[in-house]
Design brief:
Strand order of the largest sheet: 2-4-5-7-6
Number of strands: 12
Number of helices: 20
Mean pLDDT: 77
Shape: elongated
Amino acid sequence: VRLFANISHELRTPLTLIMGPLLKVLESPLLESELKKSLVMVNKNCHRLLRLINQVLDFRKLEAGQLKFEPKRGDIIGFLREEVSAFEESAKSKNIYLKLVTDIDKLEIWFDPDKIEKIIFNLLSNALKFTSQNGSVSIHVSRIEATKIRTLDLGLKRPVKFSNWLEVIINDSGIGISERHLDKVFDQFYQVKDNLKAAVGGTGIGLSVAKEMIKIQGGKISVESSEGVGTSFIIKLPVIEEEIFEQGADYELVNNSDYIKLKFPEDEAEEIPIEPENEEHVKSNRSKILIVEDNAEMRQYIKEELEKQYDVMESVNGEDGLNKALNFNPDLILSDIMMPLMDGIEFCKRIKTDERTSHIAVILLTARASQEYKMEGLETGADDYLIKPFYNAELMVKIHNILETRRRLREKFGKSLQFEPNNIDITSVDQKFLKRAIDIIEQHIDDADFNVETFSKLVGMSRVSLYNKLNSLTNHSVQKFIFAIRLKRAAQLLKESGMTVTEVAYSVGFKDPSHFSKLFKKQFGVSPKVYINGDSESDE
């Protein structure tokens, strides 16, 4: 099982490289109808392969005791309608009558949508598989009152109570199951030794995993069947309507109508103040992205999608990625997790704990879909997580959102006169760096000879690294950052010290009082004299 789980993880990378380009081709208006028909079948089987991979991984998690109830609140009736509708084309192709029967229009409860989707998919797939042409498959949904109020321990912070069951019965008019096999259908790896049934294939783990997924949610599943007549699977799920999380806790609301809308604004080229010594390091105003991925085809695939909007650099592993991050100073890094020499978890940890690179956003790409691995990635400081196989649309939206959020934070921080790192949504490493940078400037606040060169030496970074760091965090060049701190102190002195404008200028490190006045007015909108008097109009 471990071997198959490892192979399944590896299969996610080539699947990404098949499904991503395939979707792009399918969306092309130039695609011929006959060719499109064939490619739709390819796409369908890609999804089938992905489900088989997920089934193996679910079985592995089940064996390791890692399958947990992950509830979300939503309309389960609407959810079931959508799941059934996904099989309409398949039923139509076999001329099978497929229907959902329920007298419940809407029911908002807590349930695990991922597990319910897998359970329904497995049972409906089997029903259609074993039902011949002109047969029927029906899904009956009803609410049944429990004999008493029951309490469930679902591994949440507290037990939950319920007094009703949601019953879902999936009937088919298929070949049925003989009585001698009926009590074994939920056993692991059990497959009926029958030529007719074996002809349609199977892994022997789908129903056993489905049963465990239902148990995890406090539910039950049973089966009734008559050979040659048909089969019925009866699922009972607890109707959990009470709030199961603490008041104000975050949870995701299931909304089946959600879909990704791609709308990227035109690149708003902002003129970045470039210090003369750094001009060679900034070639364009486009955001820079570093791809760290050991699979050459995957790197090329991602690069082709990104380079239309971003400046892109590639790296083959974590060690190479660290060097590239220091030299290239990307705005965002896309990193695979499973790589030789240094894996993505260690790479992300190193990026986020190094002062020179801690400000760079990181998205981890991985084949490992479980919550455990997702948390491991996020705990290293990663900004987001993307599971293979993924679609370009999802990747582009995540990148756009992260970069846009960072841009707004830089603008907010750059315009603020209160340089207090704790008020900014950045990493603790960046908070410490900014506090140390501000302290160094304040210690030399009256030194007119304190310059960029001295500042970079005291900070312990090259001028280029310091420029990149401050520009990424505050939207300021090094010189402008020094001026901003000095002017902030000057404003305080003008209000509280009783000193003249000239005395204040010298005390905050300016050799020329007129230059000080010019910069002060630019930052505060009024001249120092008017600022002292508290007038709103500037003096000319």
